[in-house]
């Protein structure tokens, strides 16, 4: 296609809704699909989901909850480095057992005892086990009883159907990631010292000469995995690996997040699906395909999008909005009418930028324009509910693709969908209840 200045435009930026998964011969039932994967060279997860380093998404509570359930979280950097290090230490010090959030108790003891145990644990519910599995739920009479019951139910479902392993380090402590700017070497060192298992470079446009030379220094200074991002193009990945071959993961996607306005205010974007495909092209060119995990970051709305990202070549999927409405995200529940919401904002929104420059005296303002919005997302309950729905959906999707696990999903096929096809393949012509 010829642009009006005479140059040609030959790049197509495909996004999740532009493609569908081509069904393939399936040799396993969805229930037996294996979701284990990596988020970086040495960080293994049993559920390929990562929470985004955003100040309305990931602090220690979210990171601990996700790691207990086989996924992982990345603590945001919108706070002084000492405070971020404390969040990392908290995750490393809490119990790795998923049952530490909803206790598991056995029948048959006096009910009075159970109530006492729960009150002591400050838990509103427990899953009651007998010899042959779950017998039911014990819920204390308190105002938040329904919330506890929901959490207990989803926890039982998730643990029995998805069968995750907690994401733990060699010493049995929960694994946690932490975000850094490539320019903040002191923060990177402190986070490593505090026990962070991996670092995630957290800038909008890593494909910048200054950012890449800082990254090149940073990866040599720390011995934990460093995930580089954000990147969108094949050239960006090639230049990053040319400057920092030690990089242990790639965070791909520019401007796809629901709160991101980069594509609008700066006109620049590489939708996550295309960004992942570009990373695969670069890694293939370098003979590194499958060796450096790719994290798909931005715009993933459901398990279908997550599966498309994985089939395109991602090892793991990062979620912001997916997790922002959960109990475990920072921020209060806010009632609007008869519905509950939680705050959610882009890390380049006005409020997030102001906070960053107020609390982190080492951060420097690269640009004045805001590239994100602030708002509310529906409250979604305990994060285990979201994980359960995503993991079940991913298993179903990989089943259609004929893939028994994440690496075999990379050989599955995506196909272009026309706009009319795109309308037809979602619910239509019905008043949705
Ligand atoms: N994933 C996305 O699409 C996206 C888009 C915008 C912002 N963000 C998030 O917002 C936060 C702030 O990002 P930030 O990069 O502004 O942080 P920042 O202010 O710390 O900037 C870091 C560095 O990124 C580079 N950079 C950023 N914008 C650039 C541009 N337009 N041109 C050239 N180089 C540029 C520069 O090297 C800059 O010094 C981060 O958490 C980031 O992940 C994400």
UniProtKB/TrEMBL annotation:
K(+) binds at residues 257, 260. Residues 14-428 form the IMP dehydrogenase/GMP reductase domain. Keywords: NAD, Oxidoreductase, Potassium. Its EC number is 1.1.1.205. The active site is at 260 (thioimidate intermediate), 361 (proton acceptor). GO terms for biological process: GTP biosynthetic process. It comes from the Archaea. GO terms for molecular function: IMP dehydrogenase activity. NAD(+) binds at residues 202-204. Coiled coil: none annotated. Belongs to the IMPDH/GMPR family. This is Inosine-5'-monophosphate dehydrogenase. It comes from Aeropyrum pernix (strain ATCC 700893 / DSM 11879 / JCM 9820 / NBRC 100138 / K1).
């Amino acid at each position: 296609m010829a642009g009006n200045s005479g140059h040609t435009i030959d790049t197509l930026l495909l996004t999740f809704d532009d493609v569908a998964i081509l069904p393939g011969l399936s040799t396993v039932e969805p229930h037996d699909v294996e979701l284990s994967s990596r988020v970086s060279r040495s960080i293994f997860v049993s559920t390929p989901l990562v929470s985004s380093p955003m100040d309305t998404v990931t602090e220690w509570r979210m990171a601990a909850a996700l790691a207990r359930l086989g996924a992982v979280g990345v603590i945001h950097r919108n706070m002084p480095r000492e405070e971020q290090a404390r969040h990392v230490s908290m995750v490393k010090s809490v119990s790795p057992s998923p049952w530490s959030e909803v206790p598991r108790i056995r029948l048959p003891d006096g009910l009075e005892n159970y109530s006492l145990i729960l009150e002591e644990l400050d838990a509103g519910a427990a899953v009651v086990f007998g010899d042959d599995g779950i017998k039911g739920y014990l819920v204390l009479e308190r105002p938040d009883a329904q919330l506890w019951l929901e959490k207990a139910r989803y926890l039982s479902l998730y643990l029995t159907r998805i069968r995750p392993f907690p994401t733990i380090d060699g010493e049995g402590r929960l694994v946690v990631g932490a975000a850094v700017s490539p320019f903040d070497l002191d923060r990177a060192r402190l986070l490593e010292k505090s026990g962070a298992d991996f670092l995630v470079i957290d800038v909008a446009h890593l494909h910048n000469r200054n950012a890449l030379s800082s990254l090149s220094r940073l990866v040599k200074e720390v011995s934990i995995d460093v995930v580089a991002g954000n990147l969108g193009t094949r050239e960006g990945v090639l230049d990053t690996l040319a400057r920092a071959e030690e990089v242990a993961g790639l965070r791909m996607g520019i401007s796809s997040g629901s709160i991101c306005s980069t594509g609008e205010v700066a006109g620049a974007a590489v939708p996550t699906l295309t960004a992942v495909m570009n990373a695969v092209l670069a890694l293939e060119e370098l003979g590194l395909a499958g060796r450096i995990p790719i994290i798909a970051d931005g715009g993933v709305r459901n398990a279908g999008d997550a599966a498309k990202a994985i089939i395109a070549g991602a090892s793991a999927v990062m979620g912001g909005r997916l997790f922002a409405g959960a109990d475990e995200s920072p921020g209060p529940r806010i009632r609007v009418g008869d519905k509950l919401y939680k705050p959610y904002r882009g890390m380049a929104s006005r409020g997030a930028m102001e906070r960053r420059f107020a609390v982190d005296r080492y951060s420097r303002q690269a640009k004045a324009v805001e590239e994100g919005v602030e708002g509310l997302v529906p409250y979604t309950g305990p994060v285990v509910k979201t994980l359960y729905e995503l993991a079940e959906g991913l298993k179903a999707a990989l089943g259609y693709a004929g893939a028994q696990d994440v690496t075999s999903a990379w050989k599955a096929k995506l196909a272009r969908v026309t706009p009319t096809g795109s309308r037809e393949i979602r619910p239509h012509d019905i008043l949705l209840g």
